[in-house]
Amino acid sequence: WPFHPRGKMAEPKKLTRKGKKAKRKAQDAEDQLVESLNASVHPKIAKLDLKLKDRSQRTNPKWTNRQRTLVFSSRGISYRVRHLLHDLRVLMPHSKKDVKMDRKDKLGEIIPEICEMKNCNNCIYFEMRKKQDAYLWLGRMPQGPTAKFLVTNIHTMDELKLTGNCLRGSRPLLQFDAAFDSTPHYKLLKEMFFQAFGTPNQHPKSKAFVDHIMSFHILDNRIWFRNYQVSWKQPGKAGKDEEVKLTEIGPRMVLQVIRIFEGTFGGPTLYENPDYVSPNEHRSLLAKQAAAKYKHKIVAKEMHEAHLSNVEVPKDEVASVFSDAQKAIVTSMEQGSDEDEDASDDGDEGDDVEESDED
Question: Of 40, 194, 204, 208, which alpha carbon lies 20 to 30 A from 275's?
Answer without folding.
Answer: 194
